[in-house]
Batch of 2 targets.
Target 1
Amino acid sequence: MAHPDVFEILKSKSGLVQKALDAYLPARGSSEMAELNSFYEMLWDYNLRGGKRLRPALCLLTCEMFGGKQERALPSAVAFELMHNFLLIHDDFEDGSELRRGAPCLHRIHGAPAAINAGDGLFAKTWQALLANRRLIGAGRALKVFDEFARQCDYTVQGQAIELGWVASNKWDVEEKDYYKLVELKTAHYTTTTPMRVGAICGGAPMKEANAIDKFGLLFGTAFQIQDDVLNLAGSEKEMGKEVGGDIHEGKRTLALLHAYRKARGKEKQELVEIMAKPRERKTPEEVTRVLEIMNSLGSVEYAKKKALERAAEAKKVFEKKFSHIKDSEAKQSVEAIIDYVVERKY
Amino acid sequence: MAHPDVFEILKSKSGLVQKALDAYLPARGSSEMAELNSFYEMLWDYNLRGGKRLRPALCLLTCEMFGGKQERALPSAVAFELMHNFLLIHDDFEDGSELRRGAPCLHRIHGAPAAINAGDGLFAKTWQALLANRRLIGAGRALKVFDEFARQCDYTVQGQAIELGWVASNKWDVEEKDYYKLVELKTAHYTTTTPMRVGAICGGAPMKEANAIDKFGLLFGTAFQIQDDVLNLAGSEKEMGKEVGGDIHEGKRTLALLHAYRKARGKEKQELVEIMAKPRERKTPEEVTRVLEIMNSLGSVEYAKKKALERAAEAKKVFEKKFSHIKDSEAKQSVEAIIDYVVERKY
């Protein structure tokens, strides 16, 4: 592990966010109505399962990097986590996923109607958390943060629409450039670019510093998503908290799978096409394993890994160049350490 | 018809909102990607089906009533319509509904995953529409409007959680006070109270005028929902654009049905309990008709109608008292006319 301190950084920021969450979610068991208490449990559930809390950490660190106290970014950091959990609940249902953070997805426990509604509840709470910015950073900046959240939400949903569209129409002749467009929309904005832009805004940086994050953030966010896909193919269920090969099951277009589609020939190609054309519920575990085998034999997983590393390295270069004028600090070093971590992580 | 002009008022406000929508939703067919164009169609769909547009009308009229030009409330009025359509898409799925505004519900056309995602897309657009307030009414008031939207969303989702909980646990011993609590949370805030509070804020009224709307708005909104339930039982599918008795099918706890539960005896009671205990897909059309018959024989629909009228009359009294100091205007008269309309309407 090149940067063991990353775990300490994430742990410390995560602790802060966990503590602050109490102010933004209703206390468990606090209603007189059983139905509302059950709803509160759903709002808390994914939060209590943990997760890396990468987004809030990036938000808090960027605020500090620009000279702001991290407390100025805390409601926004909490809002990123609430929004992330809202998106996970809806995406898990939309993708037909089984496991999330080591336990069944929310819709598999409470049914889809209640889970979708709980996701909407977290969206309302995201919005409410951001209202605390008014007193903390002033009305003008508070509105800028709203703007950032609205835009990232718009992008993320567009990305999900593209992915759902590809799955529904069984489209496999996806070009790499369209894959990258998908990943930027669906992941990069809300995972790296926007948390860091908002951190800069909360930290009092001028908008040109926030804008300077974009190119770096999209590279970094794309590296993150490719590595996420690689782990889904090659990680361990225990460490990830979700099923290995789940993306194959769900029919997701990942960089590795698109590579395999391009490279496969003859009987292998035919097998790949036939298995991937089946809807989720008709793919057997043996078929998922067979797709994994084909991908490994074609070097597809290695290919994706390489692309993630390339992008992370480029992200780091862009970061160093764009922010060379920002004085060195623990926060700045931590952001750089997180870039390395993103492609070295095991879950 | 006591107030034929209500249709003209709603039509004129609806036209304004329809025109303004173009600025907040992506143009249909404007993307290079087929998947995004299909997503844009889903964002537009419920909007293009029409609807009464009661919420934007109340928002615009209240702005005018407090002396503001309605243009100051236009982005908020659009946001109410976007938010309403987002909630309808999700609720239609969660309730297992069939028809909306005369056509199949969005999830029945595109499947639940794409429809839920389109609902989230409209939520992002709601948020973006509200950002236009910054230049129009200033940062301070723009944040107040965000606050109102966040709160109404939180309430609405809580109300939906209660209703879904009752359906899931087959709870029928619901007291009338809990029914009213549900209706205030689920309907009244986002249908009447908040649109009018936001109208007042956009119109430049002090917050104490906005707060004075609450009591009136909850009575008015409750009358609206009871009448909505009555129409669902006694209206015509053609006028409503949804199936008659759909609430019985979906197992909704309405005032009329709760009345029937209290009043039914012997064999009738047993029939009612048995039919309503069945999940949606196992209720036959004959059983739904039988429940309607029992309700009519017990005077349950008349009972609900009476309660709606009582609340509307009380709402009107409260309105006249609280806003006697606001000078008479076409806008003020229109709001009063809408109160009458709400319980006299046929769809």
Target 2
Amino acid sequence: MKKIALFSLMFTSLIHAQSKDEQMLKAIYNFSLTQSQCYSWLDDLSNKIGARPSGSLSAEKGVTYTKQQLETLGLDKVYLQEVMVPKWVRGEKETAYILDNKTKITVPICALGGSVATPKNGLTAEVIEVHSIAELKQLGTEKVKGKIVFYNRPMEPYNIEAFDSYSNCVDQRFYGAKEAALLGATGTIVRSMNLRLDDFPHTGAQSYGDLPKEKYIPTAAISTNGAELLSQKLKENKPLKFYMKLSCQQYEDALSYNVIGEIIGSEHPEKIMVVGGHLDSWDLADGSQDDGAGCVQGMEVIEIFKKLNYRPKNTIRVVLFMNEEFGGKGGKKYEELSKKNNENHIFALESDSGGFSPRGFSLECDDAYFAKISNWKPLFEPYLIHSFVKGHSGSDIQPLTSVKIVKAGLKPDSNRYFDYHHAANDKFDAVNKRELELGAATMASFMYLIDQYGID
Amino acid sequence: MKKIALFSLMFTSLIHAQSKDEQMLKAIYNFSLTQSQCYSWLDDLSNKIGARPSGSLSAEKGVTYTKQQLETLGLDKVYLQEVMVPKWVRGEKETAYILDNKTKITVPICALGGSVATPKNGLTAEVIEVHSIAELKQLGTEKVKGKIVFYNRPMEPYNIEAFDSYSNCVDQRFYGAKEAALLGATGTIVRSMNLRLDDFPHTGAQSYGDLPKEKYIPTAAISTNGAELLSQKLKENKPLKFYMKLSCQQYEDALSYNVIGEIIGSEHPEKIMVVGGHLDSWDLADGSQDDGAGCVQGMEVIEIFKKLNYRPKNTIRVVLFMNEEFGGKGGKKYEELSKKNNENHIFALESDSGGFSPRGFSLECDDAYFAKISNWKPLFEPYLIHSFVKGHSGSDIQPLTSVKIVKAGLKPDSNRYFDYHHAANDKFDAVNKRELELGAATMASFMYLIDQYGID
């Protein structure tokens, strides 16, 4: 009898525990879908402040705005963390055309982040098309020297996760100029990292690596339609040149900030759980998907906890990192100060894959903890959150090195992400209110469960 | 030893069987994401043909086009099925304004499908706002007579499935005019079935039921922003009237067609598996999401089977139903002829919830078969298809009554669907190529498994 009673008690408390979590998740999703501020915050960030490239005036406005908003939430602390960031400015809008005999066919390009400018009157050269850095190297100096290298390997359409296609393609953008410069090229153009055919060139970081400055060559992205056209023209084997003019310039590093707000843990104030995204964007648009969405979702997690009167056991800290796009200085500075202050991070969650319908989380943790997290899947099922996988979490939380830290990235539906990523159409109307709110609720739910059950 | 050998053999063949299905699904997804025609078919349907309301010239063009395309696929049969459909024409674009004292504030409205016109010079009346038919009935004739009834209950933002919010809201649109007419109202306006605030009025079917014709009153949808504004103005308690002018007209029923293509089954030609969507759309836009997407996905299933040289055991029939939006005559005619010809349908799959990222299927079947289908979940996991639930399949396949039939509806992500549904922005650019193709592949995979393993 006693045994049965004990079992019954255990069973009852199990049900009770589960039901408590079920109720909390329900309250979180309900709040987010009906009362959250994240969409209106994004509206302000995108439409009142706009594009926020590192070191720009509008990035500073973004800092001031988000700090002010966090201050309205009644947190225990809201503060800024100084960080010096690279400042690169595009200057005058780029022009480019295919010079097909005497016909000029304009194509949409944009300088890649960190590119040097062309000469004032632009650069004209023959074009050589390649599909990989390996192919370029095989061609060698003789065939490359004096030419514009055109990297034209498309993102693979057949991967289910669009980020896999990005990873398999982005070396052309990141290392393409350096490799071409080593073979004497005068410039490079790279097919935009975009799964669809359209007229938007997509910028993004590139690196000259350890090249001496005098060897830097200008590098730009061309829209996918432009790349298709250029490739087709090259197949016609007519004498063809390419003209491009870039006016971009690298300035001195500028002072900027990570924006931080926190609720101090009631049981383990020394254990820190970070949530956030990055406040900087590229300069071509307001970066609503990349990563305005992640910032306001991080802020929303904190708002949800406050408004639902949930007092976390551990310290919850929202961090809006500066300069993810072009240097990652904010994430590095955050880790540097964290080490200096002997902080102990147990968990970090970043949203930097867009504000689309949330599908799950990408996790950096050991097998045992992964198994523990997998046990929470039934709690997420009613919200159509189903994908818990091991993988990359987020660029800004990458530097964090606390011994036992678990890291996670929100995993939204990836199909449309590269339609907007780093392009002029990454604007407010690309984000759906419900999808943004569901993402925030999914993050808050995950943070709640980690806070409740720890990471041991 | 023998026992072990047998077990080992069984195990090997189990692995083999599973691996065969895994390979087939991989081939299906791969084909759909790299070689399918569905997106270009949709481009034609949407951009060359356009809106296809029942009985219209463009609906007939849609019939001709899709039949021609099916004829290029080398099917065993392609044919049309005659069906008489209601023909309702919107006429001149509607106008409406709030008459706030002497100020006219224009608001976007559109007549609901089947509405009668207002008098030629329009209709002006006081407005009474309600949030449900029950509330209207409580008000009674005294408070309603001579007024325009304004139904303003929004779609619930807190449901995870947007279709639940639609179901809980659409009674206002479908029955609202009839109920208001019974209490002497002169017209009705209904808040658009849209989860977001914007300026698009959303049309859709409404029914006067058994009202005598002379009692019919004009009825229109107002955009969600318009509804918010009107409601706010009404709260100010000033004398306020509403003006609307509708020029719509009901014509004689017109001859139209269901479009059908089939591959005859190699083992069970008498067992029919149907897949498809509906070819008609509303008239305000080309209906790329509703339901151009479903049509081309159904066609794509057939293309995938043909191009992968998969010879189905059962007869696979793609059906593009006519007139789902306003009468459902195509689905009814299909069932009528099916009965007459003693056809035996074992399975029907409809895609009529948009061309968004596929998430799973909504199933009408018994528990045992539901359990069988659930066993296939691991096969779908690599494609992020995770949601297999019991529920409504599709309007066009609803009439089918074969004894053992299993019915399914493709379940795409629903968050953005009502941003476009029945509105002027349901256009080609609302559909993402990858999402459309993933949906088609998910349907083809499901059809393949049902074809392989039957429904017994």
